[in-house]
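Dissemination and training. As part of the outreach component of the grant, students in the summer workshop were shown how a complex can be specified as a set of sequence lines and then modelled as a single object. The example used during the hands-on session is reproduced here so that future cohorts can follow it. Participants entered these lines:
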Amino acid sequence: MADRYVLAVDQGTTSTRSLVFDRGGRMVAVRQREHRQFFPRPGWVEHDPMEIWANTQRTAAQVLNDVAGRGDVVALGIANQRETTVVWDRATGQPVLRALVWQDTRTADLVSELAARPDADQVAERCGMAIAGYFSGPRLRWILDHVPRARERAERGQLLFGTMETWLIWNLTGGPDGGVHVTDVTNASRTLLMDVRTCRWDPDLLAFFGIPAAMLPEIRPSIGVLGVASALSPALPIAGALGDQQAALFGQACFSPGEAKCTYGTGSFLLQNTGTELVHTRSGSISTVAYQLAGEPVRYALEGSVAVAGALVQWLRDGLGLIGTAPEVETLARTVSDNGGCYVVPAFSGLLAPHWRGEARGLVAGLTSYVTKGHLARAVLEATGWQTRDVVRAMAADSGLSLPALRVDGGMTTNNLLMQFVADALDTPVVRPMVGETVSLGAAYAAGLAVGVWSDVEALRRNWHRAAQWSPSPARARALTEEYPKWERAVQLSIAWGVP
Amino acid sequence: MPGSVQSIERAAAILQVVAASGGRLGVTDIAEAVGLAKTTTHSLLRTLLLVGFVDQDRSTGRYALGTGLLRLGSNLDVNELRARASNWADALAARSGHAVRLATLVGEEVIVVHHVFRPDDSAQVLEVGVPLPRATTALGKVLFAHSHQHTGQRTTRSGAGATAELAEVRARGWATERGEHEPGLGGIAAPVRGPGGLVVASLGVSGPQSALFDARGVPRSPVLTMVTDAAHSVSRELGHGGG
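and obtained this result:
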């Protein structure tokens, strides 16, 4: 019998990738295509949805061709960049303007206006997260306010809204010719428009943000058949869809309450499974949907998003020219044995979790003539470790769940100095899995689970293998706990600096 | 210049001309400048292109100094090496079912720069930074076989047998250990080459001797092929072989 394979599409911020996985969770083929980034004004970031759709078709066809004859591809799962917002014409399939990307900050004024309204408190209460420009609802509102006749056409049902998975599923299932207009519950939970308890669009939130219900997709479980991708050959059932960070949580096999993963890329994204209970957040983490299997209750997660992690190392390379390549930061950091009293707070465009202070700006604190570029490199790496501690502390305060171990992925996990620092700063083992492609693997797992390639999540758990572990040193953990208030002071200074 | 090698002298002359021209010369001009036949110059340039010492503009055909020259002054950064090898090392561990290590020479010591656990979720300790004996481990033998220390006169620690083994390692492109370092522990390793073809690291698996070798001590072919393929892939990633 031929092997059964699953196709995953990872629609990311810089590229679209199609990957095929076997039943062992091993990648057997991959194709990738980058798309253009548009920066029409400072703070504005856009993608061309048609280009992304074309790249999806092309890479999927290529990768299906790569494995032709080797096995049967039986399902498609999609993971996508979250909060990126598309609005298009139902009849023609043409977007009304380019997609507003999650990094886009044009809604800042609109968000301050909305947050100042007397009825703004209900938003966090209903949807689990405070009003911020990071989420897709305000972007959708901006489009309705700025594209001529958009609101009127949306009210008449002529325009459709979607995040990237919605846009791709609609096109894959026929587009203007009978395309299925659905979103998965994890992506819907990032709009500020969904009641996080019932997982339905909330009429009061729609009224608050001024969004016509007619343009919204149907909210569906993340794991379950959403439609048939008739645009592909062979036509595959689309059986899973998740926001990329939730996909990584699923790909890391964090199925039990307390299990958590952190992806260290440009930013860092820590998600902790909290089970079927929604955790009330007060400490700066956010409550989000982790995933939902069709016919089962929603699983929730706490999330701590940090805007700048690997991006700080890139700044050391491109902004300061202190290193030639990103991995060399570890070499430079190892020229010294500590940070020399130096702290770097990378609040380049404010601080996300757990502080949520958009006005904060970056700073280097503790400079003396003793500090060298080696100390600076160490402080750069430590900043990512300290921020992980900030987030984990907020989550522990909110959920009361202990963290047995932190599962990590992303480019920075090859940095042993950083991974050891994270283990010591959290006083928790840090483990890296054998398959680093956790986002696409999570999408493949979701789809394969829905069509029976895997029987249950326990079968997926057996595919997870540890490739490396960094164990905390008790002495270092104690020393870092003593040092932590200095970092906290540096963070307070960065917030104070940004206050006008 | 008694005992000088003609082709190296000619290559050096070509590099000087290319450096001075600022990337404005094609093969005809360069041949004229160094006083060689165009075919000779062309074949020298092709070799220099292969090792990355010159680059050629695809549209104009003109030559400039290559990035390989810039890297000559500095050894490959070990953290860069780990980052570039990581995906291949993970795949090797997942496919072979054995622990994977990447090692390099730091001074005269063989040091583990990357370690992927055996994928059985048993308790294992990360061995990055750990020194290995160079005479009794597969990783050490590969590095030792290709290091200048060995090709000189400094082989006093190893006898004639060891010298023959290292010559064989160089010739066939892989090394083994069968219980010499730790009883019952086997290892297979292959060289990782940098842009100019220089061996910069060794990549290998380790596991029970019986899993890696047959009763006659011959490496089991699927594992051996996985190791040499992975080492080639990392070499390509580093820019060896025109990739």
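Residues 78-242 of chain B form a domain with the Beta-Lactamase fold (CATH 3.30.450.40). Students were then asked to discuss how this feature might be tested experimentally.
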